[in-house]
Amino acid sequence: MAIKLRETTRKRIAEPDEVREAERTRVEILRLGDVTLARVILEPGWHWAEHVKPIVGTESCEIEHLNYVLSGRLRGKLNTGEEFLLEPGDFIYVAPGHDAWVVGDEPVVMLDIIGGEQYGKAAKEERKAA
């Protein structure tokens, strides 16, 4: 993957290019050329089916993710029935077609290396952008 920048570029997650907020959700987007990194913060009680499904309008999350978990615990279930549990230090690829929810009383904070650009956008918006 080539990043098309002409010089060294530094950005700070504390100063994101874009912030998306919804109930129990904060997504901080950083862009460097054509590469996007998102810091995703999910509060206790967050559940994709409850908090994101109504926004995107799909039965399950249809975005692929490459995530690194910094804190908290997140359980997920693929449409195939396979389940997973993410904890701090986990690095995972999650295929499209899944649901997820926060486990416990600690917020989940993770870096979304693939998928952050589309997070929380309606399915119609995603198709237009593609």
Give the SSE layout:
Elements: E1 18-22, E2 25-32, E3 35-42, H1 48-51, H2 53-56, E4 65-71, E5 73-78, E6 83-86, E7 91-94, E8 98-103, E9 108-114, H3 123-129
Antiparallel strand pairs: 1-2, 2-3, 3-9, 4-7, 4-9, 5-6, 5-8
Summarize the structure.
With 130 residues, the protein is mostly beta strands. It contains three helices and nine strands; from the N terminus they run βββααββββββα.
- Tally of individual domains: 1
Order of helices and strands: EEEHHEEEEEEH
CATH class: Mainly Beta
Structural class: mainly beta
State the shape: globular
The CATH homologous superfamily name equals: Jelly Rolls
How large is the share of residues in beta strands? 35-45%
Contiguous low-pLDDT stretches (5 residues minimum) are 125-130
Walk me through what this model shows.
The chain has 130 residues and is mainly beta. It has one domain: Jelly Rolls (Sandwich). It has three helices and nine strands; from the N terminus they run E-E-E-H-H-E-E-E-E-E-E-H. The chain has helices at 48-51, 53-56, 123-129; strands at residues 18-22, 25-32, 35-42, 65-71, 73-78, 83-86, 91-94, 98-103, 108-114. The chain has a six-stranded antiparallel beta sheet with strand order 1-2-3-9-4-7, with no helix packed on it. A three-stranded antiparallel beta sheet has the order 6-5-8, with no helix packed on it. A hairpin with a 4-residue loop joins strand 5 and strand 6 (83-86). The chain is globular. The two termini are 18 Å apart. Residues 125-130 have low confidence and may be disordered.
